[in-house]
Every structure is written in C-alpha cells, then in structure tokens.
Specification:
The chain is an alpha/beta fold. It folds into 3 domains: 196 residues, P-loop containing nucleotide triphosphate hydrolases (Rossmann fold, 3-Layer(aba) Sandwich), CATH 3.40.50; 116 residues, no CATH class; 96 residues, Helicase, Ruva Protein, domain 3, CATH 1.10.8. The chain contains 18 helices and 11 strands. It has a 5-stranded parallel sheet with strand order 2-5-8-1-9, sandwiched between helices. Strands 3-4 form a two-stranded antiparallel sheet. 26% of the residues are buried.
C-alpha cells in the first residue's frame, strides 16, 4: 500500500476517512478497514508465515446506490493501491465469445504500471529538466565543432594525448562560448526566452499507424504495437516552435528516457500482487434463477472460471507472470430474487466476510446531501457560484428533498442515493438555465420551492400506476 501504509493507518482512522465521504454502512466500513490493516500485519511477519496468509475477501450485499462501490473506490484512493472495478456480467465462460475472467487481472496490472510510471516520471523531473536546458541551449547557441574536442575522443580509444594540442585561440574561443551559454542559461531560467522560436529535434515513434493484433494475442497479454515499436528504430523530426512549447515536449521526452522499463515492470507487478484490489460488481447476476436455461447456463461456468483467480493462481501478462494469491477481491451485488447461497459453494467459500448494507433512510439521504466533503449541495452551489450567484439551501428544503427521495425509493425502484441526482437536476434546472442571463447575488431554495419544482416527479409516479 505504498507510502501511506504505515502504523498510523489504523482501522479507526480508515473509518474516519470513509466517514468524510460515505454516510452510514458502519459494518461494511469496519470489514474493509480490518482487511486493510491485516495486509499491513502480514507484511511484518516472517516470509514463510506471510506466504501462508491470504486476504479475506469481502462480499457486500445490498441494494444499488447505498455505497458499495464508493467504499472500495475511496479505500483504493486512501492507500494508493492499484484498483479496478469490473462488471461480472461482462465476462463469458472460456470457449465463448467475449472477455475471459483473466482480463481483469491484466487490467489491474495495466493500472499498476500507469501508477508506477506516473511516480517515476515525477521523480525524474529534476534530472530531466537539466537535460532539457542543455538541449534548449544547443538549439539557441549550438556548440562549435572545433578540433579541440578531438583529444577527448582520441583518449577514449587510447590515442596520443599530444596528437592535437589546444591552441590559446581555441582556449579563448572555448571560454567565450562557455560564457555565452551561461548567460543564455540564466535567461532561460528567468523565463526571458520563452517566446523565442527555435528549431528542435523531437523524437517520434517509427510506427505511425497502429496495428491491430489478433484477439488471441491480446488475451495472452501480447501487444503487437509494443513489440514492433521496440524492434523498429526511433525517428526524430525537426520542428520550429517557441521555447515554451519545446520545453514541454522535451521535458516529457527526457523524463521518459530516464525510466528503467525493467524496474518499472517489476515494481508494477509486485504492487499489483501485494496491494491490488479488484472490485467485482453485480456478482449476483452470475446466479441463474430457478428454471432458467439457455444463456444462463454459462453463468455457472463464469463462476467456476473465477475460482482459480480468487483462490490464487498465476496469470500471464505482457509484463510477466502475476500471482493472484494476495489480491484483495471485494464482490458486491443486490441479490434481489437470489441469495448469496445460490452461488456455487466453492465460490461462496472464497468470500468469507459477508456484509449486508442497509437501505438508506430519509435521514441518511439528508446527511448525504449536506455532510460529505464534496456533498451534492456543495457541488451545485460551487457550480452556480461561477456565475456570481450564491446558492443557499434552507434546512427545511434539504429535509423535503430527502423525504421525497426516500418516499420514491420505497414506492418505486430503490436506487438509493442515485435518486438524489435525478431530483437535484429537476430541482435546479430552471436556475441553471436562467442564472447566466439574470444573475442575482443570492438564490435561496426553501421548502415551498422544492415542493413546487418536484411535484411533477410525484405526479408522474402516480400516473404510472394506471398504465399497463
């Protein structure tokens, strides 16, 4: 879990962090917090014992919109771990057309590679900046190609040092050149040459047109584009541009040169193996309902394909083999009409921690509107504030929104906190449209305004009862 996984990341602190973004669901938060802490505890054990301890995967059961995905996503952000969210319904049984379950592990590795690459690029920026300055100086004031540079070349091959001696004139010229470059370097660092145009060599891939590989090669983790780009030589193109633009392009190019590809792949694989989190959503959709036939037959096959990955196996990726033994799997599903016990027994046993998330009450919905760090009300107020208008909600207005959302969830499809997004868009549609042409210092949303604007949602719901 990188630099954030230390003794200070206790379960109570994890829950404290989650409380800033997610309302309620204390049991789910506790389970995830303990799972993260156990990862740290495992790292402190002797290697022979650590190898025997596997993560306790978690199964979250609850209706949509109650925070299942958000808990996993926030945890991954907190610990800076490789994290991907996949839909179980996207996979097909081996032998059928579609994505196989191993692809989620390869996606996790790609995410890990991107994370490590970003960090390495940041660390390489200071050294890359020095190289960029040298290349910009060469473009502004090219080095003179004089004979006095030859002795160094000859000495490298054992040549006689006195074959060509530097004359006083050449020494003076060298000194004058160094002084000019020093002055230009100072001007570069002060930003006084940013608008000057220069000719610069920018490297580009020899492979101008992407080549599509066969699906079989992709499933094996083989990238045809990368293979060919590694074989074919790089080419460069001279372009005329301002120093400011050249600095930006050269900075990226020089930083990329400083990255050790082998070290990057090794660290990314290790990070994915030890810290990776895979969130498997809609696991309940892999359960065939009683009496089903046809396409549902392959759903059990997908469950069986998941088994070796969840319990621990080796998956081939383009960066090398990856063991899944210590990846944390968090599965989730509404399990409406089916039960977790309807999963095949072997897969049930791979998710020993089962947490039921509770439906949201109107009090929870009101908290979601106001309490999180970036709550919905704060988001909409921030958007409207860009027009020079303050948007303010009264306590009675937030309660009215929450009560109406809870009522609609109970009488219609329960979509949890996602109901609030629909209602807020309906509530503020006219304000968002008119505020540009008719700006006001303050717009206050009260209970009567809420009932007036959202009455249509209730009426539509009542009419649907009589439609066949």
């Amino acid at each position: 879990m990188s630099e954030l996984l230390d003794s200070d990341l206790t379960p109570s602190r994890v829950i404290e962090y989650l409380d800033r973004y997610i309302v309620g669901q204390e049991k789910a938060k506790r389970s995830v917090a303990v799972a993260l802490r156990n990862r740290l505890r495992r790292r402190k054990l002797p290697p022979e014992m650590a190898r025997e301890i596997s993560p306790k995967n978690i199964l979250m059961v609850g209706p949509t919109g109650v925070g299942k995905t958000e808990i996993a996503r926030r945890i991954a952000t907190l610990v800076q771990a490789p994290f991907i969210k996949v839909e179980a319904t996207k996979f097909t049984e081996v032998g059928y057309v579609g994505r196989d379950v191993e692809s989620m592990v390869r996606d996790l590795v790609e995410f890990s590679v991107a994370m490590v690459r970003r960090r390495m690029l940041e660390e390489a920026q200071p050294l890359a900046a020095e190289q960029v300055e040298n290349r910009l100086l060469d473009a502004l004031f090219p080095r003179s190609e004089k004979k006095f540079s030859m002795p160094d070349f000859m000495r490298a091959f054992g040549g006689a040092e006195d074959a060509q001696e530097t004359t006083p004139h050449e020494e003076e010229e060298r000194s004058r050149e160094a002084g000019t470059r020093a002055r230009l370097l100072a001007m570069l660092r002060e930003g006084r040459l940013e608008d000057r145009e220069i000719d610069i060599e920018i490297s580009e891939s020899s492979l101008g047109i992407p080549i599509l590989g066969a699906s079989g090669m992709d499933s094996m983790g083989i990238n045809l584009n990368e293979m060919l780009s590694g074989i074919l030589p790089k080419r460069s193109k001279k372009r005329r541009m301002k120093v400011s633009e050249a600095r930006r392009l050269l900075q990226a190019e020089e930083a990329e040169k400083l990255i050790d590809a082998d070290a990057l792949a090794q660290e990314a694989l290790e990070k994915a193996q030890e810290d990776g989190i895979i969130f498997l959503d809609e696991l309940d959709k892999l359960v065939a309902k009683g009496g089903s036939s046809g396409p549902d037959v392959s759903r059990e096959g997908v469950q069986r394909d998941l088994l070796p990955i969840v319990e621990g196996s080796v998956i081939q990726t383009r960066y090398g083999p990856l063991k899944t033994d210590h990846i944390l799997f968090i599965a989730a599903g509404a399990f409406s009409g089916v039960k977790p016990s309807d999963l095949i027994p072997e897969l049930q046993g791979r998710f020993p921690i089962r947490v039921e998330l509770q439906p949201l009450t109107w009090e929870n919905l009101q908290q979601i509107l106001t309490e999180p760090e970036n709550s919905l009300l704060k988001q909409y107020s921030a958007l409207i504030s860009t027009e020079g208008t303050e948007l303010r909600f009264t306590p009675s207005a937030t309660r009215a929104i929450a009560e109406l959302a809870s009522r609609m969830n109970s009488e219609m499809e329960d979509i949890g906190a996602r109901r609030l997004h629909t209602m807020m868009e309906q509530l503020l549609e006219d304000i968002s449209f008119d505020v540009c042409d008719n700006p006001r210092p303050l717009i206050e949303v009260d209970e009567s305004f809420v009932k007036e604007k959202l009455a249509g949602l209730v009426e539509d719901r009542d009419i649907r009862r009589y439609l066949l």
